[in-house]
Every structure is written in structure tokens, then in C-alpha cells.
Amino acid sequence: MSLLPSIVPGLGLVKGMALTLRRFFAPKATVRYPEMPADVATKFRGRLQLLYDEHGLLKCETCFQCAQACPIECIDMGGLDTKGRFHVHWGPPETYGERREESALRRSGRSVPDPAYEHFAPFDLGTVDQILDVHDHDPKRLLQMLEATQAAFGFLPVAALKRISERTGTWYAMVYGTASYYGNFRFEPPGANAQAAEVSRRRPSDDTYLAALGASLGGRRQ
Amino acid sequence: MTAILPTPKAWPSILLARRGAADPADLDAAVAAGAFEGLRRAIRELGPAGTIDEVEASGLRGRGGAGHRAAAKWRAAASTPARARYVVANGYGADPGSGTDRTLLETDPYAVVEGVAVVAFAIGAEEAFISVRSTATEAVRRLQFAVDEATSRNFIGDDALGSGRRIEIEVRPVQGAYMLGEETVLLKALDGKRGQPEQRPPHPATRGFHNAPTVIQNVQTLATVPWILRNGAKAFAAVGAADVPGTILVDVRGAAKSGVAEVPFGTSLREVIGLGGAPRAPRKVKAVVVGGPTGGILPAGALDTPYTFEALRAAGAHVGSGSVIVADDRACVVDLARLLTRYAADEACGKTIPCRIGLRRVAEIGERLTTGTSRGGDLDLLTDLCADIVGSGLCDHERLATLPMLSSLRSFRDEVDAHYLRGECPAGVCRPIALGVAAGRARRAPAAAAAAAPARAQA
Ligand SMILES: Cc1cc2nc3c(=O)[nH]c(=O)nc-3n(C[C@H](O)[C@H](O)[C@H](O)COP(=O)(O)O)c2cc1C
Ligand code: SF4
Ligand code: FES
Q1: Which residues are paired to B250 by β-bridges?
Q2: A58 pLDDT band (50/70/90 cuts)?
Q3: CA angle, B376 then B382 then B386, to 5°
Q4: What are phi and psi of B233, to 5 degrees?
């Protein structure tokens, strides 16, 4: 330890200025964004943030495309899907309107009682396993498995979808995304809750289209 | 079952030749009527390359909407090196308002089975699928029966007609979305995936089901193939229009009656809608919706358009699902266009921005027109937006879904303008219109609206 720095007056200043000068001539890290595009790695996708439209509504439609595309399944969601169908899944309660005990628990480690929350009913996995066996656990036969599941339960329980995902090695987002695409699948028992009934009433169907077409041709609006 | 409309005696009957058969699924009766003779000729006489040549010479084009040359697809699939090849018959019949494919499958399931077998033989495929709408239960039943019968009698199966070739046909009922009719979507459904289209090229003919060359053909196209092989390419080329030989099934929703009819290509729209009867006086034909939910709305002045792929496209419509709907003067064209666009937007798959958001915005412009809440510049926005959707769409659905609005803009400008500029519906269908306009005006310029209100009250 030398005493020199403390006894030569102004040396600290020189050292400081030297750093300043070096930085002065070094390449700049700041860019004149947005005039100049920032140089980011091609794989960079930015922070995930759900945006709101001009009416203040969430733009996310719960279409599950991002969850399906994410290779490490870090994206997960729930709410209303593109077809306007309600499906409870897990997701940040503040973004998906639906406050769910399970979600809160997962996020905060504390259980937050939610009066609207209903536990999943006890569920018979044997039936699903049988269906999986019949179809050889083959993800290519996913639609047939889903149809058989719906025929057995009357709808597609989340637990069954989870089981299919687990046993076929298909991502849950893929199973759910596929199931929610096809209009013939239901995620709630028929007439289970008012919201589900309302949504399926509003869901576009061939029958409502044909009825509206007939009305429009006859000079009426529907 | 959709009714089959009677057609003039002079019109050829290729697809519905077996209508009226006691039991369409009776194999002996079908064989007596010539079923599987085409396949026999392909196997014994022509060979795979010869079969493709024969179909090419006939000029057969796809009946599923786009009208691609069938032989070109087969040749592409046959010449792509691959370990396996597939044939898929598209009998889904996406348009709920059109019963053409279902009628064919119910009337002559063996023609479709034979057509599939011929293609499989020609391109060297061992496995083939016939997809049908699950809800068309009678078609599914007859088709399954036909496949089982033909297999048990060795027309198809492990050693099809003693050719030493395996041709296995599986009937696959699918359901749940309009988009399943689109070929790449159908392949996804057969593979147990979410039904969203894929970019083409690569076309399925070179890279389709399980990444193998796959020929996807509408069931009508396939049912025509045995006739061509039985009667020769020349005889087929003589039927219909010069550039589109043959016949097609059209679902006519006419002024008096509705049903499916077999129509030679090149028949004028006037004759086609004539099959559904004339409107009862004083009603007049106002418009014809040609092509299903994404069809064009053509004015009465366009009734001389021949029913061919190119002529209909030039007129602003398309063959599409084969549906032709007559609207008389009770209907409001703008309301019809709004309804079709809304259906098309609701059924869009959501994969790409023109499909997910573009169509929705087009539908909203239509809804604003019919509720009298149009904003200034809406029609310019509509044409721009449609041009962008056509330019950037991934699949044909969103491109075609612009047709209802664009064709009404083109042929019914007065009626659109009445909605847009004056908030009136000449047909008296769109009711809330005047109210909406007054509200809109008040919102935009409260003072002017207040000044105008007493003036209108006096008038
Ligand atoms: C939205 C959409 C729906 C379609 N629906 C059908 C359909 O229901 N049946 C059909 O045969 N083709 C349908 N097509 C056309 C198919 O993509 C494909 O072109 C056709 O099955 C090919 O057969 P083809 O060459 O014999 O016409 C549809 C296309 C689009 C874009
Ligand atoms: S679910 Fe669909 S709409 Fe929502 S963020 Fe993901 S991709 Fe976007
Ligand atoms: S309908 Fe979605 S890409 Fe065509």
C-alpha cells in the first residue's frame, strides 16, 4: 500500500479525468432510438406484456398461440378463447379477470380465498387411460381421443386434458389449443354455469348462420 | 338429404348418373352400372403414367373451388421422390349452406372410392383418406359401407384388382370448423392438430400429409375420374366449357325451390338460377350470391356470366362451395354482405393478422354501414383494407372473404352509398340506421345537429 495517491494533490482528479477521456473516445452504447434501430440478437423477443386496445380491453384473445409456440412452456393462460368460449385455466388473475385460488397460490405461495373458486370435482382417470390405450397414446390420434373423452364425460374436463398431455408427451398448450379450435368440443358440462351457457349461446354456429341468412334473404335482420 | 333438382334432358349426367338407384351402397348394382371399370382400365391397360396422361388429356380441373388442373397435381406427387405418398379426398363440404359434396357421397359412394383408388394407383400411394363431415351421418355410413364392400371384393385392399398394389382407404369423419375444407387445414385435422393453414408452396402435392407428397382432391373431381377412364378423355373434353370441361354440382337456393343440380360448366348463371324457379311476381331477382359465405354478390345484370372458374372470378365471385343463392328485392345487399363477412371473420382461423384482425375490421365496417354509424372515410378504408388482406393473406379464405363487401361496393354502389352517406336502407331491412346517424352527427358536431333538428321536425 503506497501512500502516494493521498499525498500527491490532484492525482485523483487526473485519474478521474483519464477515465472520462477514455470513455469519451470509446464507442457509444446509446443509440438514437427510434431513428436508429437497436442492435439486438435475432432471437430476442422482448419482455412479454399484454397490451390494451383503444377501448381499454385486453388485446389478448387467449388463442394460446404464444403458449403453443413457446418451446419451454413458460407461457400459460386462461380466460376467453377466440371463439368466445370460457375456460378456466391458470393465469395471472389481474390479466384474466378470473381470480383463482390456485393461480394466486402458485404465484404468491399464499392461498387467497376466492368465493368464486370451485375445486375440480374428483375425477376418474381410469376412463381417460383406457381411451389413451385404445388410441395407442398416439398424439396423431388426438382428435379421436378428445372425441372419445367428450363422449365419456359429456365435456372435456381439464384433468382429462392434463392427463392426455402427460401421457402422450404433448404440451398442454397443444392439447388445449387443439381442443379449443374445434367447435364440437365443450369445456364445461352442458348447462354447468350461466357464463358458459351464455358463451355457447353467442358462439357462431352453422345453424345461427343459416337462420340469419334466411332472415336476411327474406328482408329481415337477425 | 338435400333434394336433387331436375335438369334439362340435354344436360349430361356424370356425377349424379346413379341418382334414383334403389340402394346406392349396393356394390353389385354399382358394378353392373360400370363401377370399377375405370380402375380396371387404369391398372390393366394404361398403367400409372398412362392414367395421368389420359386425365391430363381430358382437361379435368378441381371442383373444390380453385380449379387447379388435376393431372398437374398427380404428376407433381408422382415425380417427387418419397417413401410414401397419400391421397386425400376432400368431402368435408365446409359451407353449411351447400349440400353438393354430401349429395354426391350419398348418391354414388363407389365413384368416389374408385376415383381415390385410381389416383392412388397413378401416383403410387398405398394409403388414402376420404374425409367427410361427421354430421353428414348418412354419407359417412354409405361411404364406410362402400369402402368395406370394395375391400372385401378386392377392388381395393392388399392386392387391388390383382395389380399387386396395396390401396388402403380410410373414411375419416371430421367436424368442428369451417376452415377444415381448406386443404392444408384438412391435413392438420387428419394429423390430430389445430386446424390452421400452412403457407404454400410447398404444395401438399410435393409435401403434405406427414411431409409426404399428398394429392388432395375434391370428391366431385375424384368421382369424375372413373367416367373419364370409361368413356375416354375426348368424350369428357366435349362436355361443358372449352377451358373447363365436365360438370359440377351446384347448390341452388332459388326463388321457388332449392336443391343440388348437376350443371355443365359454361352454363349461364341465368340458367342455373332458373333451376330454382322464378320469383313470384311482383318480386324480381335483385342479386345472386355465388360461392358461399365468401362468395361475390352479383347484380341481375351479370346473369349472363357463364359458370366457369375464370368468368366468375372476373365478375367478382367464385365457384367456391358451389352455392348459388338468389336474393329478391326484399333483401338488402349491404346487410347480406355484412352477414357473410361476419361469418367469414368468425370462422377465420386466427393464425395471421389479415385473417385474425383484418377480416374483423372489414366485418365491423359492414356492421357500421348497416347500423348507420359509418365514419367518414369508411369506404376508402374498406377498399384499402381489402387490398391489404388480399395482398398479405396466408390462405385463400381471407382473400376470398373480401368478396362480399367488395362485390357489393362494385355492383351496388347506390345502395351502399345510401347507407354510408344518408343512413338510409332502400330495402328497409337495416332499421336503426337513421337513429344512429343522428347520434353520430350529434357526437361529431353538436351545434350543427341541434340546428338541423328543428329544421327536420318542420319538414
Ligand atoms: C376456406 C376454404 C374452404 C374450403 N372448403 C373446401 C371444401 O369444403 N371442400 C373442398 O373440396 N375444397 C375446399 N376448399 C378447397 C381446398 O383447399 C382444395 O383446393 C381442394 O380440396 C382441392 O381439390 P380440387 O383440386 O379437386 O378442387 C376450401 C378452400 C378454402 C380456402
Ligand atoms: S394467447 Fe394469443 S392473443 Fe394472447 S398473447 Fe398469446 S398469441 Fe397473443
Ligand atoms: S383463415 Fe387464418 S390464415 Fe387464412
Answers
A1: B261
A2: low
A3: 165
A4: -65, -35
pTM beyond 0.80, yes or no: yes
Min distance A133 CA to chain B CA atoms (Å): 16
DSSP letter string over B128-192?
A: EEEEEETT-HHHHHHHHHHHHHHHHTTSSBTTGGGSS--BEEEEEEE-S-GGGGSHHHHHHHHTT
Measured from the CB, is residue B351 less than 6 Å from ligand 3? yes
Question: Can you tell me the distance from the alpha carbon of B298 to that of B303, in angstroms, rounded to the nearest whole number?
Answer: 8
Q: Count interface pairs A-B at CB distance under 8 A.
A: 85
d(C-alpha B254, C-alpha B289), whole Å: 11
Cα–Cα distance, A40 to B451 (Å, whole number): 58
Q: Measured from the CA of B220, which atom of ligand 1 is nearest?
A: 26
The yes-or-no verdict on residue A61 having pLDDT over 70 is no
Q: Of A35-44, B132-141, B183-192, which gets the smallest average pLDDT?
A: A35-44
Q: Quick check: A86 pLDDT over 90?
A: no
Interchain contact, B431 vs A221, CB within 8 Å: yes
Contacts of A203 (CB under 8 A, 6+ apart): A83, A84, A85, A183
Quote the pLDDT of residue B455.
Answer: 42
At residue A195 the predicted structure's pLDDT band, cuts being 50, 70 and 90, is low
Set of chain B residues whose Cβ sits within 8 Å of the Cβ of A174: 194
Asked if residue A80 lies in contact with residue A196, where contact means CB atoms within 8 angstroms, the answer is: no
What is the position in ligand 1's atom list of the atom closest to the CA of B95?
8
By percentage, how much of chain A surpasses pLDDT 70?
A: 59
Instruction: Please choose, from the candidates A94, A78, A77, A97, the residue with its C-alpha nearest in 3D space to the C-alpha of residue A86.
Output: A78
Asked if B177 lies within 8 A of A210 by C-beta distance, the reply is no
Q: What is the mean pLDDT of chain B?
A: 92
Cβ <8 Å between A65 and B350: yes
3-state DSSP call for residue B258? strand
**Ligand 2: centre distance to CA A2 (Å):** 62
Phi (first) and psi of residue B167, to 5 degrees: -130, 105
pLDDT of residue A93: 36
Chain B residues with CB-CB distance to A under 8 A?
96-97, 134, 174-177, 189, 191-196, 253, 293, 325, 327-328, 330-332, 335-336, 339, 343, 346-347, 349-351, 356, 370, 427-431
